[in-house]
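Good day; I would like, with your permission, to put a structural problem before you. A protein sequence and the structure tokens that stand for its backbone fold form the material at issue. The record follows directly beneath this note:
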Amino acid sequence: MAALGHHIGGKRISATSDRTGSVFNPATGRVSQDVAFASSKDVELAVSTAKSAFADWANTPPLRRARVMFRYLELLEKHKSEIAALITAEHGKVLSDAAGEVVRGIEVVEFATGIPHLMAGHFTENVGSSVDSWAVRQPLGVCLGITPFNFPAMVPMWMFPVALACGNTFILKPSEKVPSASMMLADLLYEAGLPAGCFNVVNGDRSSVEQLLAHPDISAVSFVGSTPVAKAIQLAGIQQNKRVQALGGAKNHAIIMPDADMDTAISGLMGAAYGSAGERCMAISVAVAVGGIADRLVERLADEAHRLKVRPGTDPEAEMGPLVTSQHLQRVSSYIDIGLEEGADLVVDGRGVQGESLGDGFFIGPSLFDNVKPDMRIYREEIFGPVLSVVRAENADEAFRLVNEHEFGNGTAIFTNSGETGRRFVNEIQAGMVGVNVPIPVPVAYHSFGGWKSSLFGDHHMYGPEGVRFFTKLKTVTSRWPRDEQARADYTMPVQG
């Protein structure tokens, strides 16, 4: 089969390299297509094309850039079912979840349509005698987005709509496991009227990423993935004076207080732990049961887990689909072995679902551990699969301390009916995104997404107001039009007044 190439200069192009990778349908375990891995020539073409397009696009009035975003918004709404189908075919998540992902990405495009207001500067008259000062935000240049497999449409749309609306040009390097959605997003952008070369998709592997990161004409890098790679990308970017926002791993805790509404907590934990097969950076992977609530919580979770419908993502009754690759299936399964070796109690073993009539797909069911301790690897490390660990805490102080002392600080939540406890949690907890009776507190598009500690490397969170700041640089102007008698040397520090 012909390998999927790249999207450069406003059109799909064939690759110049013979290096390719296989794209699988996770529900069947079969190869659906091959994807090209970019050569140095492909990378250079993408960067030079984006660089050539930058000046005209940056000088395009923000209102005209916003109009492109408005037309793009209409096209995304029209084709969102097709994009969701591409996601399910390559990632495996159920169609309803894929459709929700597309909607959350569209919300960022909606935010970007307001760019004329969002980029407005400020002006102060007479900061000194006959001296005026004002500040403006200007685009950076060619920006690079490196995105993971778990959200083939949403995470790219966290980046490029804001970057483009701000006047930058953009190169997207999506995960080679899920390339098709990005190519369709590019097709629709150009159908919306984006000038040729402003948005480019380069498919490839680690070698392609390294070539892009090292390119001197790329001004900024936005990344979502694992913590080790996020650290490496931040370091590489800093060394080359590139602006970097790099979102890393997570181990999100949900605290269940004794006064919590049990039905709300159970439904929240089930969706947050097992939705999208746990392949979310905002998945809840640790439930901290406080006081005497643990036995009842574990019993209810186990009962729900046994009833969870694990099926291909295209099945209308499916609640959880397969994992993305056979390698990832092996990795998640190995963590269940590790948990048993470490002495945790395996209440529900999801590996048994592989024996059901699911063919050769990369399926695993929900797993539930009880009596997990903070020194265990299944507690410390990100599994990125449908494995929920229950940790028991005596009181709120101990529960809060578990969250605050963990390496990661992406997102966290608490289930409680106490306003005092909820307010204290919001104030004291060390994480970038916090939910109170909300298990997956992903901010809406006009706020911003990002974690703390080893979950974020860089100074800016993603999309929303922080996205505008990241994809622009501030310029402050001080201006005076002197009369002839004022044209003399002044050797003192200028002061106001």
